[in-house]
Amino acid sequence: MTILRTSSTAVGSLAVAAAIAAAGLLPTTAAAEVEKYVIDTEGAHAFIQFRIQHLGYSWLYGRFNDFGGSFTYDTDDPDNSSIQVDIDPASLDSNHAERDKHLRGEDFLDVDQYPEAGFASTAVTWHEDGTGTVTGDLTLRGITKPVTLEVEEIGAGPDPWGGYRRGFEGSTSFPLKDFGIDYDLGPASTDVEMILSVEGIRQDG
Amino acid sequence: MRLSNTQDSYGLLAVTLHWLVAITVVGLFALGLWMVELTYYDDWYRSAPAIHKAVGVLLFIVVALRLGWRTRGPRPAPVASHSTLERRAAATAHVLLYALLFAVMLSGYLISTADGRPVDVLGVFQVPALISDLPGQADIAGKVHLYLAISLVSLAGLHALAALKHHVIDRDPTLLRMLGRDPARSPRGRRAPAPPLDS
Predict the structure, then answer these.
(1) Are A179 and A143 a contacting pair, CB within 8 Å?
(2) Across the interface, do B114 and A183 touch by the CB < 8 Å criterion?
(3) CA B182, B93, B17 angle in degrees (round to 5)?
(4) Which positions in chain A touch B115 (Cβ < 8 Å)?
(5) Which of residues 138-177 of B touch A (CB under 8 A)?
(6) Is the pTM of this model over 0.90?
(7) Do A2 and A76 have their domain in common?
């Protein structure tokens, strides 16, 4: 329906309509391949959040605004899937400029010294209940260490504009000191939880 | 001691404002360097920055008043024994000190207002955020604030050394004038200018 509506309104632009129609048709022929997805940061349907306890009394949430990445999904053998994300740690945003400045500084992420962060999966395992475990290397503050994300697939299917999307959410928790951050935020705040919530747009052809 | 300046002496207001600004600048500099090293569980972790900001805002008001007073009333002429070079160097330093003062205060204000939050002055009033959300505002303003503050205190140190040089070596009334002495009534003021060293 969308394709028809698009082609009827885009008067005089048959080539564009044909391209959109072709893209819309491809899903039926790509079923047996390893699907490639680009994480939709352009449309901001992806979020890298973190949260940490404040004094043990509440959760403080923050996120990284600038990142990019991709994932693959093997429809025949989902364990043969992978994901990689590059994060700009300087884009940290906890909705408080002075705190963000501190978090970007030497006491925490030291982004001047370590301007790169990211995650790359090394192993993916899907369970019977539809959840999965993604193991991979997380890089923060110049240190790369393996972490394990508990993941669930949120959904997949065609979008209203001729594309095909798939989304996951996963989270992991680790001590700040694993990545060289030993600033004392109190006994309730030694660990941080990172939440990766991504939607990918399938790259066809 | 009269309130206003005369042709060759500083009045009570000018002297008071000078030393008030001097003590506040040195105090804020020390407080600023100390407070950024505090950690989360220090008692002063929250209050020290709050005091630093509030005193900074009050200092801005004082410096603005001081500059206003300086431009309105009579200004004492340079001490007669000062050479042309000394006069020019002193005048340049004074302009730079004022420029650095305002630049340090502006950069500090830009750190605190980077996300649109106002600067609170001891719960009495707030300075609204006029410029916010510039890219990297808090971080860049923070670095600028530190380096300009170091420059300001260094130049103020040079300014103080020059005053001591006039007092101890040249034995002229430069420093005494800023302590409120009237050179016309002090022994140093009546003394003939010291002969140049090369004569």
Answers:
(1) yes
(2) no
(3) 45
(4) 95-97
(5) 138-139, 142
(6) no
(7) no
